[in-house]
Design a protein that fits this description.
By secondary structure, this protein is of the alpha/beta class. Helix content is 49%, strand content 19%. Strands 1, 2, 3, 4, 5, 6, 7, 8 and 9 form a nine-stranded mixed sheet that branches.
C-alpha cells in the first residue's frame, strides 16, 4: 500500500490531536521568552505559537510563553548566545548559526543530503536526529525540537538557473557560514556572506546578484520586489533547532519540563505541516507578481550535487570526523530502506 503525502500529513494531524498531557501541578510561575528571526507568519513562528498555547494551557498558565519574531531580541547567533549565557530562555536558529556552538550539526549543511521533506523529517525524528539535539548539552544548551524552515532555493536578477553552468560568476548572498560559502564556490558562483536582516537592502542596491533561502523567507522578505528569478535548486534542507538553556530547563519542575518538550514537538510538526502545505501557494503568488520561477531537471540537479556535495562533505568529515558523518549517512540510507519497505506493503 502506497503512503501518499496527504495521508502522512493526516497521520501527523491525528497524532497531534491524540497527544493529551495531564494538567501540570500548580507551583511557581515562569516566563519563557523565545527569540525568532522570522515574521509572525513564518511556519516556524506559527509552530512556536502552537507550543505557546499548549504549554500555557497544560501548566494552568504557570508557564507563560512570549514569542518575539523579526529578531527583536537579536539575530540568530546573538540570540543563541544569550540562551547559552542564561540571559534568554529560548531561541530558534538555522543550522549554520547552531554549528557555531555544536559543530556536529554541520552534517546537515551537506548539500542534497535528503531526497524529500518526508525523508528529512524521518531522519531528524530518528535516533540520529535526537542524538544531534542531545549533543547540545555539551555546550550548555538543550535541544527541544527541529522547527521548520524548508529547502533552500536560489534567486537572482541575471538569469534562471537551469544548469550548473548558470551559477558561473553570480554574486550570491549566503549566510555567514564557511560551508555555505564552500558550496557556492564549488558551483562557480561568487558567494558573499551578508546578515539575514540586510538581504533585501543588499539586493536592492545590487551588492549581490542573488541569494539563497527557503520559499517562506523569499516571500516574507518580499524578494519579489528586488529579484527576477527563483530557481528551485533545493540544495540544502534547513531545519531550525529550538534551543533552551540547559541549566535553566533542568531547574524547572519535572512536569513542566515534560509539558514544554511535548509542546515543542507539537509546534515542530505543525510548522512542518504549514510550510509544506503553503509552498505551492507562495510559488503561484510569486509568479502572479511577475517573478519567474523554474524547477530543474533531475540531470541538472545531479550535476550540481556532484559538483558541491563531495567538496562540502569532505570538509565536514575533517571537522567532525569521518565516522560520525558516515554513521549519519547510514541513518539516511536506513530511512530509505524502511520507506521502500512500507511503500511495497
Amino acid at each position: 500500500m502506497r503512503t501518499s503525502f496527504l495521508a502522512t500529513m493526516a497521520a501527523v494531524a491525528f497524532a497531534v490531536l491524540a497527544l493529551v498531557h495531564p494538567q501540570a501541578s500548580a507551583g511557581q510561575a515562569f516566563e519563557v521568552r523565545i527569540s525568532a528571526c522570522n515574521t509572525m507568519e513564518h511556519p516556524q513562528t506559527l509552530g512556536l505559537l502552537v507550543m505557546k498555547d499548549y504549554v500555557e494551557k497544560h501548566t494552568g498558565g504557570a508557564v507563560q510563553v512570549h514569542v518575539f519574531p523579526n529578531s527583536q531580541l537579536g539575530a540568530e547567533l546573538e540570540s543563541v548566545e544569550q540562551v547559552q549565557m542564561g540571559t534568554l530562555e529560548m531561541a530558534t536558529a538555522s543550522i549554520a548559526p547552531i554549528v557555531t556552538f555544536q559543530e556536529k550539526f554541520s552534517v546537515l549543511d551537506i548539500p542534497f543530503l535528503f531526497d524529500s521533506y518526508l525523508e528529512a523529517w524521518a531522519v531528524l525524528d530518528s535516533k540520529a536526529g535526537t542524538d544531534l539535539l542531545d549533543s547540545l548539552e555539551e555546550v550548555g544548551l538543550y535541544g527541544l525540537a527541529f522547527m521548520e524552515n524548508g529547502y533552500r532555493h536560489t534567486t537572482n536578477n541575471n538569469r534562471p538557473i537551469t544548469s550548473l553552468a548558470d551559477f558561473g560568476g553570480l554574486k550570491i548572498r549566503t549566510m555567514q557560514s564557511p560551508l555555505h560559502i564552500d558550496n557556492f564556490k564549488a558551483l562557480g558562483a561568487n558567494p558573499t556572506p551578508i546578515p539575514f536582516s540586510e538581504v533585501y537592502m543588499a539586493l536592492s542596491q545590487r551588492i549581490a546578484d542573488g541569494q539563497e533561502n527557503p520559499i517562506a523567507n523569499i516571500w516574507d522578505l518580499k524578494l519579489v520586489e528586488v529579484q527576477k528569478y527563483t530557481s528551485l535548486t533545493g540544495h540544502i534542507y534547513d531545519a531550525m533547532p529550538l534551543v533552551t538553556n540547559l541549566k535553566w530547563f533542568k531547574s524547572l519542575p519535572g512536569d513542566y519540563q515534560e509539558v514544554i518538550r511535548t509542546g515543542a514537538i507539537l509546534g515542530q510538526n505543525y510548522s512542518r505541516f504549514i510550510n509544506a502545505g503553503r509552498e505551492d501557494m507562495i510559488i503561484a503568488k510569486l509568479r502572479e507578481l511577475g517573478m519567474e520561477v523554474n524547477d530543474l531537471s533531475a540531470e541538472a540537479k545531479n550535476a550540481i550535487k556532484d559538483a558541491a556535495q563531495p567538496v562540502v562533505a569532505e570538509k565536514v568529515r575533517k571537522n567532525i570526523g569521518a565516522e560520525y558523518v558516515d554513521n549519519f549517512l547510514k541513518a539516511i540510507d536506513q530511512v530509505r530502506i524502511d520507506t521502500a519497505k512500507s511503500v511495497d506493503m
